[in-house]
Design a protein that fits this description.
The complex is a heterodimer of chains A (309) and B (230). Chain A is α+β, with helices and mostly antiparallel strands and 309 residues long. Helices cover 72% and strands 8% of the residues of chain A. In chain B, 43% of the residues are buried. The chains are: A alpha+beta (309), B alpha/beta (230).
Chain lengths: 309, 230
Amino acid sequence: MNFSLTAYGARHVQACLGALGRLARNPLGTLLTLIVIALALVLPLGLELFVTNARLATGGFSNAVDLSVYLKSDVPLAKAELLAKSARGRADIAHLELISAEAALAEFRAYSGFGAALGVLSANPLPNVLHVHPASEAQSPASLEALRHYFAAWPEVDVVQIDAQWVTRFNAILGVLRRLLIIAAAILGAGVIAVIGNTVRLEILNRRGEIEVTKLVGGSNGFVRRPFLYAGILYGLGGALFAWAIAAGAIAVLAAPVATLAGTYGSHYALVGPTSRELAILIGGGILLGWLGAWLSATRHLRSIEPRA
Amino acid sequence: MIIFDRVSKRYPNGREGLSNASLRIEAGEMVFLTGRSGAGKSTVLKLISLLERPTRGTVVVGGKNTGSLTTRHIPAFRRRIGIVFQDHKLLLERPVFDNVALPLVVAGTPLKEIDKRVRAALDQVGLLGHERALPLELSVGEQQRVGIARAVVSKPPLLIADEPTGNLDPDLAVEVMQLFKRFQEVGVTIVVATHDLHLVRELGLREIVLDHGHVQGTEEDPLPGMVATR
């Protein structure tokens, strides 16, 4: 048993190495096929990375719904601090930050580009603001409404603004992109199967004589098919690795401009590459598609090749 | 070893390859199939190796009714038959060693064993030392001998050859026949289709003569008292 298992494994290793050798002997053709497969795989991967990065980059606000409580401009800072202190006691508030009118003006001056224009103002036009981040269990529309009511009831409060709508919209856009990604992956996956299937078909036709002789001396369909399945697997694997390299290259090229862009928002966001899970799906998917394309093609075309002595 | 019971074979193009042919070849025998081209020699060999199926009648090979073998069984069945072709059917881009090793490789023989047996087979046909040569670097006679080495490397109990000397000059043809004779002496059943009557007579072995798909002579009733299994 052990012995035959070893022989079985050896036959697979042999078939795999044989397929690898065959691909290596035709480097240009192999490269072209790999590029086509890699392009088909890199598009869904790129979309996935785009969605992931968009979500992470905006993570500070996209995952949370915040309230901005604008106090009336005649409310002094001391009073605002008092209000902030009392509100912090509530269970449905995770975090509350008081942004004083002074601090807001300083920030505005630094980032808006209107610094010089602000100099002509005699008084600070900005109010003190409470920035409220609700507790995670209090982010339902009803709880947010209750919070809004609580703040709106204070006589010192001018306006309560819930920064919810654009967040919902943004998440919806990401949802659409994610669905688009699945559609693209399905279509391009079918394309990969077709490309590999066709490559294997041509290879089978090229080796028709050899296949006939192999069948003549008692080679089973499984034996004849095995190297083609390995060729498919190698195409899929190679294409997936190629796609990974393309994605890594794209991230490297984009890193600097993205850092500049993030800087303009006062962020230090750096692009993330594929996670190990995404890589596993990419490589596993590539191998599976390669195997499937080769299997479909080989099973179909090998059956038609019977020896004619 | 081989029994044909009232076998007919009609090809899709309407040509009758065999008509109601019956014959019997014993285990360990060396037999010649003779007759003009088109007489049905190749058809008999194709039916033995399951390259074709009979239209009517029963073909029994090695105790197995070939009609009961499905496509799935054919590879294992063929591994027990060595086949030699007139055009040798070697893989021209593979060295001699790979060509001879092929039947062992498809049967899953361990590599060490393959090496040993390929050398033994090449030794038997006098080509030891040519393992790395490509078939086209060899003479026609040597190529045919590589084909024979491939046919016997897995030590099949039955060896069939279709015009194995068709492309060889008389001296080489005799040499090849002597080679077959030696395999027969160690117990292999051998069926050789040939139109080289001179050679056949010289060896003095049994001859089954085919003419227009019919077996000539005394081969009409190979199964006295036995009902053919269908």
